[in-house]
Design a protein that fits this description.
The chain is mainly alpha-helical. Helices cover about 60% and strands about 5% of the residues. Among the domains are: about 35 residues, no CATH class; about 170 residues, no CATH class.
């Protein structure tokens, strides 16, 4: 049987027990005692950071160093001050160099209106003198863009399509495996006080999924769409058909008057956006869905590529294309310019609508 020590009150074990019980703080007296490990039952206590002593030591060293630098009159350090000054001087020199190069380039530009300027060469003279004969388009600008330089316009249309694809990848919100989650709490818009909270996981064929989907559609209607705005809808009924007709007119008359695929497509896209704001996504998706968008852009770009590839092949080999230019001034004239204008207008309109729908809803 062990006997009790006479000096138990002064033993290390007794001091350790007193420290564990919180009676005394023996660490201040210089005794190196290992603190006890946290019990599994004490879940509310936050775990100690194992790197805390090292972090505290680094902070103390930095504080001491800063105090020493301040005492010497160098609060940031000589190296840091030199680097900042060098950075500022180099930034100013870089800006001055760019300004000097630009001014030097401007000084060597030809005088405006000089007959020997590069813009007054045989290319521009060819556009003006023989553009109507070779393209069949009364609008010289449209003939240049969609005939002489149609390859550049095709690249611009591809850029619009790639940009819409990138925005679709970044902003699209998909529900996993066709499931959608619906949740409403008290105090939200469109819900009376005191109604219960709903947390429904929508799965195809699940019990109550029809009711839950109806509530989900109502919730999405409150989030994304107007709620029966009669004034906006009546204005849309009058203005949207006029906007569509005007956009189609601009696209079809691009080779006869100012306009074309880009401007007409922008008007058509604005008409789609107006209709969407007035009647919501549900009504718009009855005739314009994501599938329609993909098919329209794919068909338009494919036809554009094939048509101009045929023109490039026949032109490079000095062959007749066989495409009639029609009577200048008639709606069916200009060879391939009219269908190419239609393709460009479809791509621009679809891209504008896709951007708006993705930024607003995260989907089409």
């Amino acid at each position: 049987m062990s006997r009790r020590r006479d000096d138990y009150e002064n033993s290390r074990w007794r001091k350790f027990r007193s420290w564990v019980d919180g009676e005394v703080d023996l660490l201040a007296s210089g005794i190196a005692v290992q603190p006890p490990r946290e019990s599994a039952d004490l879940k509310d206590r936050k775990p100690e950071n194992p790197h805390k002593p090292q972090l505290e030591g680094a902070l103390d060293r930095d504080k001491a160093r800063n105090q020493e630098l301040r005492r010497k009159g160098d609060p940031e350090g000589r190296g840091i001050r030199y680097f900042r000054r060098f950075y500022q001087v180099m930034s100013v020199l870089l800006c001055l160099s760019i300004i000097f190069v630009l001014l030097w380039t401007i000084a060597y530009l030809p005088a405006f209106g000089n007959a020997g300027n590069p813009d007054n060469n045989e290319v521009s003279a060819r556009y003006i003198e023989r553009g109507l004969q070779e393209t069949g388009a009364v609008n010289i600008v449209t003939g240049m863009i969609l005939d002489y330089r149609a390859f550049d316009t095709f690249g611009e249309s591809c850029v619009l399509f790639i940009a819409s694809c990138c925005v679709l990848v970044l902003l699209r919100i998909d529900a996993a495996d066709g499931e959608g989650r619906f949740r409403e709490t008290e105090g939200k818009a469109g819900q009376a006080k005191g109604e219960p909270e709903y947390d429904v996981l929508l799965k195809p064929g699940a019990a109550g999924s029809v009711w839950a989907r109806k509530r989900l559609e109502e919730s999405n209607d409150r989030l994304y769409e107007p709620k029966d705005d009669v004034i906006l809808q009546k204005c849309a009924c009058v203005l949207v058909p006029l906007i569509f007709v005007f956009g189609i007119y601009i696209v079809l008359n691009g080779h006869l008057s100012p306009g074309g695929g880009f401007s007409g497509g922008a008007v058509l896209g604005s008409g789609l956006i107006f209709y969407l704001n007035a009647f919501g996504f549900k009504k718009t998706e009855e005739f314009f869905t994501e599938k329609v968008y993909r098919r329209l852009t794919l068909c338009a770009l494919t036809f554009y590529c094939m048509a101009k590839s045929y023109s490039f092949f026949t032109g490079a080999n000095y062959l007749k294309s066989g495409i009639p230019l029609g009577t200048p001034g008639a709606i069916l004239s200009g060879g391939l310019i009219l269908p190419l204008n239609i393709c460009v207008g479809l791509v621009v309109a679809c891209t504008m609508y896709a951007f708006y729908a993705l930024f607003r809803k995260g989907g089409m």
